[in-house]
Known about the structure:
Strand order of the largest sheet: 1-2
Low-confidence stretches: 113-125
Radius of gyration: 20 Å
Number of strands: 2
Order of helices and strands: HHHHEEHHHHH
Mean pLDDT: 78
Structural class: mainly alpha
Largest sheet: 2 strands, antiparallel
Helix content: over 70%
Amino acid sequence: MEFLLDPNVWIAFGMLTALEIVLGVDNIIFISVLVGRLPVQFRNRARQLGLGFAMVTRLLLLFSLSWVMGLKADLFQVFGQGISGRDLVLLLGGLFLLYKASHEIFVEVEAREEDAPPQTDGEAIKAGGSKLFWSIIAQIAIIDIVFSLDSVITAVGMVDQIWVMVAAVVTSVGVMLFAARPIGEFVDKHPSVKVLALAFLVMVGMALTAEAFEVHMPKGYIYAAMAFSLAVEALNIRARSKRQKLAAIKAE
């Protein structure tokens, strides 16, 4: 138990946990956007399953480190550019994210009710919600693999002890599980924030696709752009709230 008294271990654990939480932001946003399309009674369960898949995927990849690191070896070349297993996963994940985020933006802006289950019959709502539930869980599971791969490779570069990586992953997913519901409810309550979140996912999809071709786009730039956009939108939300209160007072 002496290793528990080693300050270097705790520093590594804290840094890796914080990094895993930051890297999980795009995962939370993706889950929150998709879960928002479900009937209310399905949403919390979908969040829990989605983040549960994220944790299981990360742990499985951690326990198969030799295979994960082997994904960096080139499988073939395209126009002189080596393509590895990791590149293929990032490319397919990036393209999927681009497609999904673009489709969700269309549904949100142009056809908000297009994919909604019928609202006239309780059984129809339940059946439609159940079918949509498993479709969304499958999509979350697919994108979890992409986000987990990047997360695990980063963890391997920071820490040597696998148990520290496992503890950091479990802790970070626990934090994300706690934060996912309020974030999801906030995104669902404010359609303009939802569109911003989808635009953020488009940027992440572009970054993953570029990364597959060895074009590195630091996520810090993407997070900074998104933080600025959210700050502006927060001011807009506050201004709208004030206008609504003034309108209510005048109406009385």
